[in-house]
Amino acid sequence: MNTEATPDQDNPLPLLWCQFLAIRDADGTPGPSYNIYRSLIFDVELPGDSAAIYHLCDGHWYKAEKSYIDRLRTYLDKKYEDSNLLPYNHDDRKNGAPVYSEGNYALAIPNWNTEFICLDKSNIRQEEARK
Q1: Which residues contact 62 (CB under 8 A, 6 or more apart)?
Q2: Residues 36 and 23: beta-carbon distance below 8 Å
Q3: How many domains is the chain partitioned into structurally?
Q4: In Å, what is the CA distance from 16 to each residue of 1, 19, 31, 34, 39?
Q5: What is the SS3 assignment for 72?
């Protein structure tokens, strides 16, 4: 992969490396920002390499054998189970505007269905998931 810092027609990636998505609350106050390139998830098969799939996640490329992906898919498909989760309508309100609240939703789930428990109230960042 070309990692030069200058974008051109053949390599637009540097444009993604230096772009960020800034999150703002209902008042317009800046919150966290996220690098666009690190936010992408992408799978691709490259010509001439029919035995592998390349996966982009959190700004890093990974190569996996297709046979491994097939075995994993077969294993996980057997574990899949349909579920109907509680519809989301759990926003907080700030200055009259709705503000997304994963915590409110997570806490409401066990009240809706006692077969579920609340294990967290926030998103898990990629760095934490890798530990």
Answers
A1: 54, 55, 56
A2: no
A3: 2
A4: 14, 5, 20, 11, 10
A5: helix
> Amino acid identity of 96?
G
Give a yes or no: residue 72 inside a domain.
no
Domain extent for 93? 81-131
Q: pTM of the entire structure?
A: 0.57
| Rounded-to-5 percentages of helix, strand, coil across the chain | 30, 25, 45
Measured CA distances, 103 to 13, 20, 29, 92, 118 (Å): 35, 25, 20, 10, 9
Render pLDDT for 82-120 as a digit per residue (tens, 0 to 9).
Answer: 878 888 899 988 888 888 888 888 889 889 998 887 776
Closest CA to 121 of 111, 108, 107, 131: 107
